[in-house]
Amino acid sequence: MADTLTFDLVTPGRLLLSEQVEMVIVPGSEGYFGVLPKHAPVISTLRPGVIDVHQGGAVTRQFFVAGGFAEVSAAGATVLVEEACAVKDITRDMVENRKAEAAALADNAATDDDRKKAARARWVADEMAAVIARAG
After folding, report:
1. What pLDDT score was predicted for residue 134?
2. b/e per residue, 11-22, with b = 16+ CB within 10 A?
3. Domain 5-87 has what CATH class?
C-alpha cells in the first residue's frame, strides 16, 4: 500500500472531506502545487481553482474552491476555503448566475473596496466557467 497523508477540506460551515489520500494538488496563489506524504511544511494562500484528490494513482475527486489557505506538514494538509463545491456539481446556470452577481456588484460599486469585491467575484465566476469549458 502506498504512503498516504491526511487531507482535510474545510469551509466556514462544515468539514467537506477528511481522509487518507495519496496526493492532493491545490491551486496556490503562485500556481498549483502537489502535496505528497512527508511533504515539507508550507503555508500558502489559494486562488480560485480546482483541488484534485488522488487515490490509486488517479484523480478520484475534484473540488472547485473560491480561495483560502493551505497548511501542509509532513503528516498531511489542511485546506481552509471560503467556499467549495464538487466539480461535478457545477452547472452552466450556476456560472451564469455568478457572472450576473459579479456584474451587479461592479455596477453598484461605490468605493475601491466595492470594486475589488466585484473584481474578485468576476475572477471566481471566470475560473468556474473555465472548469465547465475543460469538462467539455
Report:
1. 86
2. beeeebbeeebb
3. mainly beta
